[in-house]
Amino acid sequence: MTKSVLILPGDGIGPEITAEAVKILNKLVETDGLDISMEEDLVGGAAYDVHGVPLADATMEKAHQADAVLLGAVGGYKWESLDISVRPEKGLLRLRKEMGLFANLRPAVLYPQLASASTLKPEIVAGLDILIVRELTGGIYFGQPRGIRVLDNGERQGYNTYVYSESEVKRIAHVAFQAAMKRNKKLTSVDKANVLEVTEMWREVVEEVAKEYPEVEVKHMYVDNAAMQLVLNPKQFDVMVTGNMFGDILSDEASMLTGSIGMLASASLDENNKGMYEPSHGSAPDIAGQNKANPLATILSAAMMLRYSLGREDLAVKIEEAISKVLDQGLRTGDIWSEGCTQVTCSEMGDAVVAAL
Ligand code: IPM
Ligand code: MG
């Protein structure tokens, strides 16, 4: 049966990078019997400019109906002064929340060809393969109450609430343990249990869930130490599981180990593996419209979509191998370029991946 994919290019470099991923999907439709239909719609600032909101209800409904969503990026200078309730980021957060996409998988994998593109020494990052499992629909991103209020003395006070219920921790822990079982069976749970009660409980719940996975070696690490260990000795990690905000921060950090945030894909899944797929990077408004962006994180996200939501593991592998081939050919966008390589544009990179398929 034909599966439906909703494409939400978004803002900044979003349209350029998703166009390359769509190119690759179209090629697979032609040559590999990929049976999908694609429809595009607006999200983020692009949606705000047309609808006055960063995600129209009709688009939300399409996302519910689709088998998978592929998203570019949201945000940009143009919308930074808008009220926080209608900022581009709210469109993305609404999609995540209303689709119940609590499990965000962010694999930080170093392609050996890019070892010299990392700012760390090649021997520190060679062979790196970390999976960050980030809780995506709870924590301080969504906790109530939140806001900015005026105190009796006239001073303003900003406040957010960091909250997790046991069930939320349990379900993300299960996702992380199951992922670890398929990999090297090592799980690091990242918290700040020495200061924050919410993560003290997080640690206790992870310990309980661990009993169901006796083969997995579990470690708990404070987030400050985890940030340091990621640059000191990143290969000690296999799967990392953490809350929404720590995961946001650590995944950006981990991406740089792989050479560039332009390489980091992500899948955000619900209970039934229905998902939204997006690069982990932002909309990079400084280079938008210049055909300079690295489309590989989005193309790799499309590969994750084939794997988790469209039942085509074979085509996911095919895309990953094609990317490896293109890197072997020495083709690089600016962010991953190093001496001796050929610099290509965003669309040339997409074309090269198509050719390598
Ligand atoms: C990410 C991004 C988003 C987040 C922003 C754009 C809301 O940084 O996906 O990591 O904070 O989750
Ligand atoms: Mg982020």
UniProtKB/TrEMBL annotation:
Its cofactor is Mg(2+); Mn(2+). Coiled coil: none annotated. Its EC number is 1.1.1.85. It catalyses: (2R,3S)-3-isopropylmalate + NAD(+) = 4-methyl-2-oxopentanoate + CO2 + NADH. The keyword Cytoplasm applies. InterPro entries: IsoCit/isopropylmalate_DH_CS, IsoPropMal-DH-like_dom, Isopropylmalate_DH. It is an enzyme of class 1 (oxidoreductase). This is 3-isopropylmalate dehydrogenase. It comes from Thiomicrorhabdus heinhorstiae. The lineage of its organism: Bacteria, Pseudomonadati, Pseudomonadota, Gammaproteobacteria, Thiotrichales.
